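Renewal narrative, Specific Aim 1. Our central claim is that a sequence can be written position by position from structural information alone. The example that follows is taken directly from our test logs and has not been curated for this report. It begins with the structure tokens describing the chain, in the order in which they were read.
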């Protein structure tokens, strides 16, 4: 039975029971503190001095929220108390409890950060400030405001993880008490929780919070589906009660016989996880088998493996369903042994085995640091304090390279994938990467310099393409070269936010540097035509600094470097800036020099206005692009089009596309010429008409290779081969002379009937 048919069958009951099920979900949640007295009962682990500080914070928050009510009609202070109570369940310290009580005072009541510092200290004030949204600032769209708020919160979280723990407690209580809100607002908050907050909770190992946030989000986003599936689960629970009791009895007897002290508890999949599995496998509820499972909590680490042997002797294991997350923990620090066994009635039942400390980390993740501050020799191998530390640090790294809030949030979302693959470095260090990660992601996970200079990779000793997807257990080796640099095409295949942000940052930096150099060259040439040279860029030269300050103010740029980038990218015309610069120099008594003027006029061509000549040698990178329509090579007559923000685009002089651009925008054309010694080969297109037969491609490839050229792409089209076939090949050549040699060699091949260069 699919989701729709199940919903249709149970819809009348769902309609009647929606409100009841929503209230039940909240009532089944852990008990919350609704008054300060109830909160105090939970804070028995604090000292008397700390309790007194918490009381002061409560009084401050109570006064600040006086007269303010929630949508449900309750006094607003009940919300901060409940949030503080959830933080107390995690045994967070006094500063975090105080921040939880006052987390809305800056945002809602106009309390300043300075006031909090004076009254409660800098650390508590920093926590409260990190929790404060940016709604008071003006943004053009809701999405922009939301992205900026997330960026602020996540960076505060990277500085102090207590920020996100308090924020998750805040979001959890809001989700539990959202019924009083308007349906539209409920949907928006639930979607935001499912996309951002639940994955963050999972990334930090707070699995209990993660499951509840998912469940509540699903309940508010799809209430009918949630109600229908809840009814189906309840019905299945009654049908399977006998088998659950029998399995539990058998397991306890088996462990008693081996004299191993264990705690056995049954667990049930959440409605959301059942729904996700049904969607993922396109199956009905009746085909979801592993709704029930068992958790075995033992005293020591060796007993985890002993208990595995006991269970495998009791029931037959399902092949391929054993996972050892103790030897190789998940990225969020989760550790357990997982195995699936066949029960006496033939159904599959999953068992999880772990120690008490592992259980605390599995349920509370990074918050377990406050629960287990002392080491446990037989417990988890991962220190809870360090859970997610690398990811938190990566937030700071991404922020350093990404100033756009929406882009930052995109990178963070990429890293919130729950699934991971575990790969090894050649020295047997384990790295966790998102599913679908490539050797490029691996390289950037090692170090940004390794990623920037990657040229090839080996997986399990075999050379592979850089876009190859990695799998758990792969041994990955990256090969680097000093002169290598990131390829823009990598952005389409990497999966980690760190790799994506590093590649984008490098490309932006290189583009800006190349464009600045190009802009400076163009402005110098344009100014030479006025008989002048560029003023000094040395900041200690007062006269030069004053002129550049005047010019940047006129152009609307923040600095001389930014102006040069704009000229290099075509956002500003060099001749116009040169004339304004000449005017500014004239006002200071600097006149045109006769020798410079003669040089400028000699270098300028009438058709290219007065901007002088730009030489192309192939090393220009992002600032100069060869047009893909005509693919110019050295020896071709060329012209340059200064695009609006795209840099210099070089066309052949006879290119039809270029001529149309010239007719439409003639003032943006400048003279370009090939340098005497180009630094690389250049691609151009050929069409080769061949007769059909055996070994045609081999003969064509051999002819090209004998001419010392390379085929970089070959296309035969979609039509089936007939007596004659057109091959469209892209080849790399040094210049026109080299191209002529290639064409002559191809014409001598027996299978080649005709060869010509492709022109637009």
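The sequence written for that structure reads:
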């Amino acid at each position: 039975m699919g989701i729709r048919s199940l919903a249709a069958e149970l819809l009348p009951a769902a309609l009647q029971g929606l409100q009841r099920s929503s209230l039940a979900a909240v009532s089944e949640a852990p008990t919350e503190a609704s008054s300060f007295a109830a909160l105090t009962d939970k804070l028995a682990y604090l000292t008397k001095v700390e309790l007194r500080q918490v009381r002061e914070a409560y009084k401050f928050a109570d006064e600040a929220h006086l007269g303010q009510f929630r949508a449900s009609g309750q006094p607003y202070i009940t919300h901060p108390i409940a949030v503080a109570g959830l933080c107390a369940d995690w045994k967070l310290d006094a500063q975090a409890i105080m921040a939880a009580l006052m987390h809305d005072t800056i945002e809602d009541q106009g309390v300043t950060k300075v006031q909090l510092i004076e009254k409660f200290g800098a650390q508590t004030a920093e926590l409260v400030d990190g929790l404060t949204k940016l709604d008071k600032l003006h943004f053009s769209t809701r999405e922009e405001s939301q992205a900026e708020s997330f960026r602020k919160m996540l960076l505060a979280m990277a500085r102090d993880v207590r920020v996100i723990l308090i924020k998750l407690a805040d979001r959890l209580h809001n989700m539990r008490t959202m019924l009083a809100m308007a349906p539209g607002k409920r949907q928006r908050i639930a979607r935001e929780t499912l996309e951002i907050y639940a994955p963050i909770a999972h990334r930090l190992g707070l699995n209990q919070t993660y499951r509840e946030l998912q469940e509540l989000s699903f309940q508010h986003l799809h209430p009918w589906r949630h109600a229908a599936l809840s009814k189906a689960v309840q019905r299945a629970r009654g049908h399977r009660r006998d088998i659950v009791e029998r399995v539990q009895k058998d397991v306890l007897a088996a462990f008693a016989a081996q004299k191993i002290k264990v705690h056995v508890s049954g667990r049930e999949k959440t409605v959301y996880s059942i729904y996700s599995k049904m969607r993922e496998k396109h199956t009905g509820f009746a085909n979801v088998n592993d709704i029930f499972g068992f958790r075995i909590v033992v005293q020591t680490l060796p007993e985890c493996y002993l208990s595995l042997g006991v269970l495998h002797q009791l029931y037959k294991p399902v092949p391929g369903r054993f996972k050892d997350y103790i030897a190789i923990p998940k990225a969020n620090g989760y550790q357990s042994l997982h195995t699936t066994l066949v029960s006496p009635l033939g159904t599959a039942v999953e068992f999880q085995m772990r120690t008490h400390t592992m259980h605390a980390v599995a349920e509370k993740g990074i918050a377990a640091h406050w629960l287990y501050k002392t080491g446990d020799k037989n417990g988890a191998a991962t220190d809870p304090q360090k859970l997610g530390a690398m990811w938190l640090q990566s937030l700071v790294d991404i922020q350093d390279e990404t100033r756009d809030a929406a882009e930052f949030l995109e990178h963070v979302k990429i890293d919130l994938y729950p699934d991971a693959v575990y790969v090894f470095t050649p020295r047997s260090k384990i790295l966790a990467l998102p599913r679908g990660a490539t050797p490029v992601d691996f390289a950037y996970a090692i170090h940004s310099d390794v990623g920037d200079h990657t040229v090839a990779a080996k997986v399990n000793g075999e050379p592979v393409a850089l876009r190859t997807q990695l799998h758990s257990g792969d041994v990955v080796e990256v090969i680097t070269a000093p002169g290598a640099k990131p390829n823009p095409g990598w952005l389409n295949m990497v999966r980690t936010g760190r790799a994506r942000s590093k590649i984008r940052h490098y490309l932006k930096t290189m583009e800006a540097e190349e464009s600045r150099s190009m802009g400076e060259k163009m402005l110098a040439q344009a100014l030479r035509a006025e008989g002048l040279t560029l003023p000094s860029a040395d900041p200690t030269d007062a006269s030069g600094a004053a002129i550049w300050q005047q010019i940047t103010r006129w152009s609307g740029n923040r600095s001389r470097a930014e102006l040069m980038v704009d000229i290099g990218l075509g956002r500003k015309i060099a001749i116009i800036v040169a004339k304004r610069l000449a005017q500014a120099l004239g006002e200071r008594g600097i006149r045109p020099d006769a020798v410079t003027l003669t040089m400028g006029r000699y270098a300028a061509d009438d058709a290219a206005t007065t901007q002088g000549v730009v030489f192309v040698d192939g090393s220009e990178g992002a600032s100069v692009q060869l047009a893909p329509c005509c693919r110019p090579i050295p020896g071709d007559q060329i012209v340059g089009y200064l695009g609006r923000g795209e840099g210099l685009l070089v066309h052949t002089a006879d290119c039809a596309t270029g001529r149309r651009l010239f007719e439409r925008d003639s003032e943006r054309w400048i003279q370009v010429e090939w340098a005497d010694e180009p630094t690389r080969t250049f691609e151009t297109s050929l069409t080769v008409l061949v007769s059909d037969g055996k070994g045609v491609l081999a003969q064509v490839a051999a002819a090209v290779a004998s001419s010392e050229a390379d085929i970089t792409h070959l296309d035969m089209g979609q039509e089936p081969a007939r007596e004659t076939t057109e091959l469209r090949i892209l080849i790399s050549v040094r210049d026109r002379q080299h191209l002529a040699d290639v064409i002559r060699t191809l014409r001598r091949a027996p299978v080649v009937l005709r060869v010509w260069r492709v022109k637009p």
